[in-house]
Amino acid sequence: MAIVDITVIPVGTATPSVSGYVxxxxxxxxxxxxxxxxxLTPMSTLIEGDLKELLEIVQQLHELPFQKGAQRVCxxxxxxxxxxxxxxxxxxxxxxxxxx
Length: 100
Fold this sequence. Notes:
The structure is a single chain. The protein has 100 residues and is of the alpha+beta class. It has one domain (2-99): Alpha-Beta Plaits (2-Layer Sandwich), CATH 3.30.70. It has three helices and four strands. The chain has helices spanning 19-30, 51-67, 89-99; strands at 2-11, 37-40, 45-49, 72-81. Strands 2-3-1-4 form a four-stranded antiparallel beta sheet, with helices on one face. Strand 2 and strand 3 (45-49) form a beta hairpin. The longest helix is centred in the middle third of the chain and has 17 residues, at 51-67. Residues 4-97 form the Thiamine-binding protein domain.
């Protein structure tokens, strides 16, 4: 299982606010409930699941602002793909909390 940290940045929009675009991303992700986990953070969105499926979702998320009229989109992704043991958002948080 992999975790992807994604930030989709529409460029050249009429306003500096991107909350409407972020809301569209989360509406889209609701269609994957039960298949992946996702979490909104103040700076990005985390998605957890099978890497192949997550990469397909990343491509679709990158396209969303174009569908809303954006002419340029920059998308940043980080992938954490650990294969020696279960890799989940929850497990990563608990590992740190246990050390505090």
